[in-house]
Amino acid sequence: MDPDAPHPGSATPDPAGAGGAEPPGRRLAPRHASSPARPRSTSWTLSLVLVAVLAFAGSLAGFGVLRLQGNVRTVGDLGALIARDDEGGSTATPDTDAWEGRPLNFLVIGSDDRGGANGEIGGVVGGMRSDTALLVHVAADRSRVEVVSIPRDSEVRIPACHLDRDPAGRMSEPTKDKFNAAFSLGGASGDPGLAGLCTAATVAENTGIDVGADFAIVDFAGFEGMVDAIGGVRLCVPEAIRDTHRNTDLDLDAGWHDLTGGQALDYVRARYVTGSDNSDTQRIPRQQKFIGAVVRKVTSSDVLTSPRSVAGFLEQGTRALTLSGDLASMRSLAGLGWRMRGLDPEQVTFVTVPTGPKPGSAGRVLWTDDADLLWQRIAADEPVAPEPAPGSTSTPAPDATGDQATPGGGTPPAGTDVPQPAVTPRTAEDPDDVLCG
């Protein structure tokens, strides 16, 4: 058994009974969830949904929305298990944005499911597990996308989660645990919808960001097929890297590499690698770097002008996905993609939730005050990082006190009073490329 595997809490009868109306302003929560009072402080494929949508917006309609819809697994209707402040999405045509005029937030969960074909890749392990989680924020004006990596080892509050599909049914006890424990807890019955819903509720509980029941689950096997369908992905490796525990076959010399699906999977999964402290936070930059490389590849003329590559990517991508909520409609996704068809890779920004080690705990991390600012910026639909100054790098420089300064310098954009968090942004344009010549 994986030593990082979470330990789900016990199931108990619903403590809230039939429940009542949600308090004004309360964002997503299970209808009967209860949780401790909020203290003052509070993975790895951009969504191959999102990549496909942004890169192949026009192709989605031509390729056949209904055919792609038949490839996607869905979790069914979870609406009775959540309470939301808005009316959700609407029916859309392939050239209509169902979320027009408002920001869109959804989760992408990298499933560590080890059954079937996934077991052949990662080794057979029982239970439902998540490996990586990304919060994807699409700006209301569709001018940018921010992807926030949530470290799996973050210690967070996990609210009471539904353990069956009955709105008045069994609930788990609120608890504190690693972030990825929420997926295992909600999925104790083997239901991926409840696993994703508990993860979404945990995001809302700790960030205030409403993702409703909008999430995408991506599996191992489908990931390999997507990369192979576009002829692999070219990546700069500045320094030689190898898996020191041999949990994968990762062993790359410094320089350019054209990664196949299997090699790419090893690159984003490997945790015990040369020069690493073996923590989850050490591999997140590699995952973000690879996602950026995928974005560049699928938006390149090599892929966009190849009907075979487009068709293969869409086929493999949709087969790799389990979708929920409004995301489960390929027609809605096609409409979003059409609206965003001019998005440049530089307008896709990746950041990681700012964390620090938890004293006296091996491996667990705590979110810092800058995490609060990050969530506030997203809630306000403001860029999480300003435009970098010409010639600057994406890494924040230390200020006079030794703390990290605001990335790229400058001041927060007009129209918001939320300060900039100290985060290290990365765009889909990789600055490491110059190191490989």
Describe the structure.
With about 425 residues, the protein is α+β, with helices and mostly antiparallel strands. The chain contains 13 helices and 20 strands. Strands 3-16-11-5-6-7-17-20 form an eight-stranded mixed β-sheet, sandwiched between helices. Helix 1 packs across helix 12 (about 330-340), helix 7 packs across helix 8 (about 260-270) and helix 7 packs antiparallel against helix 11.
For the termini, the CA-CA separation is 42 Å
| Strand order, sheet with most strands | 3-16-11-5-6-7-17-20
Q: How would you sum up the major sheet?
A: 8 strands, mixed
How much of the polypeptide forms β-strand, as a percent range? Answer: 15-25%
Briefly, what is this?
The chain contains 13 helices and 20 strands.
Characteristic key phrases:
globular; 29% helix; 20 strands; 17% strand; eight-stranded mixed beta sheet; 437 residues; alpha+beta; single chain
Write the topology of this structure.
Elements lengths: L10 E2 L16 E2 L17 H8 L1 H7 L1 H7 L1 E2 L7 E2 L20 E8 L4 H7 L7 E9 L6 E6 L4 E4 L12 E2 L2 E4 L2 H6 L5 H16 L7 E4 L1 H10 L3 E5 L3 E2 L8 E2 L2 E5 L1 H9 L10 H19 L2 H4 L2 H13 L1 E3 L6 H10 L8 E5 L2 E3 L7 E3 L1 H11 L46 E2 L10
Parallel strand pairs: 3-16, 5-11, 7-17
Antiparallel strand pairs: 1-9, 2-4, 5-6, 6-7, 8-10, 11-16, 12-15, 13-14, 17-20, 18-19
Helix pairs in contact: 1-12, 2-12, 7-8, 7-11, 8-9
